[in-house]
Structures are given as C-alpha cells and as structure tokens.
C-alpha cells in the first residue's frame, strides 16, 4: 500500500549533532533504509533518553536506548514497525493502521555513553517521564 507520493525524494542532511535531532518518521525511515553513514555512526556511538512526539495529538512518549548499538539499534525498530515494541504505540497502530505513526517526530533528550549501565539510563528515562508527565498525559504506560 502506498501512503503518499512525493514530488522529490527525501534528502537527508549530514548528522547535525545530538542537540539538533528532530526527525519526522519518513526521515528516520530513509536514514535507516539508506544506512546514512554520519547518522549511523553518531547514533550507534551513544545511548540515552529520547522523545517521540505525536504531532497529531501532542502526546509524548519517553524512551531509552542503552548498550551496544545505542540509539541506532533502538530507532531502527521504530523505522521498521512504527512502535518499537511499545504497548501504547502498538495499540495505536493496531487501531488506526500503520499510517498513524507518520505524525511521529523523534528527538534526543539526553545522551549517555553506551557503557553506561542500563539502571542509570532507566533512572534518567524515569526522570524525563516525570518532568514531561508522559505517564499521566502521554503515551508511556509504565
């Protein structure tokens, strides 16, 4: 099924730095599909805490990436299936179809060395969930 046709192909710029990552779903898909070197290198080198914003509803999802592969490994899952295994996002896609995740935007809240412990990264993720109220008003069920 074709979701949309674009007059011009999506052009991805070189990795802009962690503070400036703000990707639309189709941009993330292109970066992962093309294995864009500057993006793959940067996103594989660190983990940390990321944010997915649903532009349609304004709801937020806070997630984390840790261990080998860092953000690249984690975000590849979102590029492939839209939900990355998240219960709330899976349900949204089940109800409204795969095109529903085209309004998602991906950004990085905090970076951590890939050697940072899982416990430390999860503690920082919990902090951002509290700050952004993503459990009460967003897409985090946990």
Description:
With 142 residues, the chain is an alpha+beta fold. It has one domain: GIY-YIG endonuclease (3-Layer(aba) Sandwich). Helix content is 39%, strand content 20%. It is built from five helices and four strands; from the N terminus they run βααββααβα. The chain has a four-stranded antiparallel β-sheet. Helix 1 crosses helix 3 and helix 2 packs across helix 3. The radius of gyration is 15 Å and the shape is globular. The mean pLDDT is 92.
Fill in the keyword field for this structure.
39% helix; 5 helices; GIY-YIG endonuclease; 142 residues; alpha+beta; four-stranded antiparallel sheet; 4 strands
Based on DSSP secondary structure assignment, what is the total number of beta strands?
A: 4
Give the DSSP E fraction (strand runs of 2 or more residues): 15-25%
CATH class: Alpha Beta
Calculate Rg over CA atoms. 15 Å
| Average pLDDT rating | 92
What is the strand and helix layout of this fold?
Blueprint: E1 22-24, H1 25-34, H2 37-45, E2 46-54, E3 60-65, H3 70-81, H4 87-96, E4 104-113, H5 118-132
Antiparallel strand pairs: 1-4, 2-3, 2-4
The gist of it:
This protein has 142 residues and is an alpha+beta fold.
